[in-house]
Amino acid sequence: MVEQFVGTWAMTSSENFDEYMKAVGMSFATRQMGNLVKPSLLISVDDQGVISIKGKSTFKTTEIKFKLNEEFDEITTDDRQTKTVITLENGKLLHKQKWDGKETTVERDLQDGKLVAKCVMNDVVAVRIYEREA
């Protein structure tokens, strides 16, 4: 159920994210900014089943709108243009991005009331943890 993810989430920790950004191919300057910001995620679902994930930080605000299992064009925070599909499997939101022959996955899961985002690119894994805001 996507509804369990709905809400506003504040990032509380980030591990190995610089290595992940490097693996994805982000520039040094973009990685510097990426390491400084602690984004909030706003996740919502409308009456038509369209899901919105908005990432807000002092650096940039991004938003994607999608339906589960339907491919869409995404422009990432670092301006990659990806073909993206988001699915719900075993209670986890799987966010798969493909571009230039590459692929990365962000797996979002709820653990102990926290939103855990596991970012995977080849053999590099970063883990970012968010807590629900009141």
From TrEMBL:
GO MF: lipid binding
Domain Cytosolic fatty-acid binding proteins, first and last residues per copy: 7-24
Pfam families for this protein: Lipocalin
Keywords of this entry: Transport
Gene3D superfamilies (alphabetical): 2.40.128.20
Domain of life the protein comes from: Eukaryota
SUPFAM superfamilies in UniProt: Lipocalins
Family from the record: Belongs to the calycin superfamily. Fatty-acid binding protein (FABP) family.
Name of the protein described by the UniProt record: Fatty acid-binding protein, adipocyte-like
Species of origin: Clupea harengus
Gene: LOC105899315
